[in-house]
User: Fold this.
Amino acid sequence: MKIIGRKEEQKSLTEYIESGSPEFVVVYGRRRVGKTFLIKEFFNNRFSFYLTGLANTGTKKQLRNFNTSMQKYGKMPYPVANTWFDAFEQLIHLLEHSSKKGKKVVFFDELPWLDTARSGFITALEHFWNGWASSRPDILLIVCGSATSWMINKLIKNHGGLHNRVTQRMVIEPFTLNECEEFYHENNIVMNRYQMLESYMIVGGIPYYLSLMKKGFSLAQNIDALCFAKKGALQEEFSSLYASLFRHSENHVKVVEVLGKKAKGLTREEIIKASKLQGGGLTKTLEELEQCGFIRKYNAFDKKNKYSLYQLIDFYTLFYLNYIRHHKHGDEHFWTNFVDNAQHRAWSGYAFEQVCLMHIKQIKSKLGIAGVLTYTASWRSQKSDPGAQVDLLIERNDNVINLCEMKYALKEFTIDKKYEENLRNKKAAFIEETKTRKSIHLTMVSTYGVKRNEYSGIIQSEIKMDDLFRKV
Assistant:
């Protein structure tokens, strides 16, 4: 199959192969984002050794699984190892007697699953790398895992034998809208850009979710089949998604549930009040959710860290909490027959804002400031009544600040007298409260642009849906 996007990642992998040094590469990213697919396809499954960990099983079964891989790649029978130290000694023997020329690629997939309780796996991995592989310029060790917090804390931030041993890290991000469009075209799935945008708002740029779409189905039919039909592929994804990544995942679920109710985000104190979670446990939960790409932490403009807001940014989670959770045994054609209502407008507005925040590069490109140093933040008025808020501002090094309004609409967005007044008041409040001396440009980000009328002149620049599909 063709690799969609991932140009920089493929370039990096080529560099690792051609380097004259041993390489220890850590690959991580959200579950279902296509990490394993990228590595397997890039190397065409031609590994000197490949092992994938087994979920929810003990050390003995993991070692038997390791032995199965040893038999596949080795030229002699190896006994089942009793410990991970013995297993890695066998791997060293296999690699030393390999006839492969050039870099020998060793790929461990789902590495966190191998680190079972009291298994000694990490210590044995340390010994393998420090005692042998780190002095072998022909070794390319790639380790991969969806439990991003484990990958970061156990490998990249390791304070033991693996401290500063990782030579490269590779974060696999969800597809952009442009890459989703390429994926749909490659797989003969017919959609216009508005439908692709709606698809992104529902399942995000997660390749596995996109791969479940059936050609010949409309988007609505696909969403019904995946999310609302009995035994739909994404009906039970929510519980398995969090349970597979986090121990005590009930705390992580509580946090995303409370964040899912507040589009503008919550402070740490507000999360504590709403979730009833306390102290250090919450700190770890928030950190793990952020590392795995489910939430984001961002600072309000001109505020310190204690004013940081946390916001749910995982599209599937947001859609699940709004719709799937309450329709497990309801209408199997729910999305096809869906009638617009207040709940839908709230969800679609929030989801569209998140799409825009995922495509800051495309917005900057359209504004002609791709090469300008910028800082993005949000802003809440502390004085105005009613309270003014800017969900995305782009502070630029050329003495301009773009205050971005994001509106999801089925047609051109119309600015009326009341909304124009709201924008003027928001801009005035921002200037007064921040004391900024920079030029303030109001920017509208919408699906089909702004309808020209007597009030639309307040907008200095606009971004349309098609601009979000830019290849940058």
